[in-house]
Write a structure and sequence with these properties.
149 residues; 5 helices; 68% helix
Amino acid sequence: MTTELQLTTKQISVFSEEYKQRRKQQMMRFFGATVFTLISARLAFRGVQSRKYVPHMFQLNNKPPLYSFQGEAVSALAFGTGLSTGSFGMLVFGSCWLADISSLAEFTIKVRKLMGDPSSAYDMADQPIDPETQKVAKALEDLLESAKR
C-alpha cells in the first residue's frame, strides 16, 4: 500500500533555499532594528541615571549641580530619535517579516491584492486619462515650459 503526498507549489517553495534565505534576511533586519532599539534604550537609561543628583554626606540636597541646558536638549533629542527610529524600524521590519515582504515591489503587490485588485501588474501609466485631467496636465506642462525659458 503506497501513500502519495499531494504538495502544492507554494508548499514546495517553502522548502527551497531561496525562501529560507529570504526569511533569514527578514529576520536579520528585524533583529538588527531590535538591537538598535535596545542599545538606544540602554544609552538613554544611562543618560538619565548619570544626571540623577545624589548628595553625599553634608551636601545640600536642594541645590543640584550646574548643567548645560543646550547639552541636555541635544542628548534628549538624540536619545528620543534613537528610541523612536528603532521602534519604528522594529514595527516595519516585523510587519514585513510576518507578511513575507522583502521589497517595495512585493509590498505594492500585497497591498493591491489586499485592496481587491486581482492584477498584480497593474500600472497607472497605462490607464486612459479623462479630458479634465488632460487639460490640467497640459496647463502644468505649459507652465513648466514657460518657467524654463
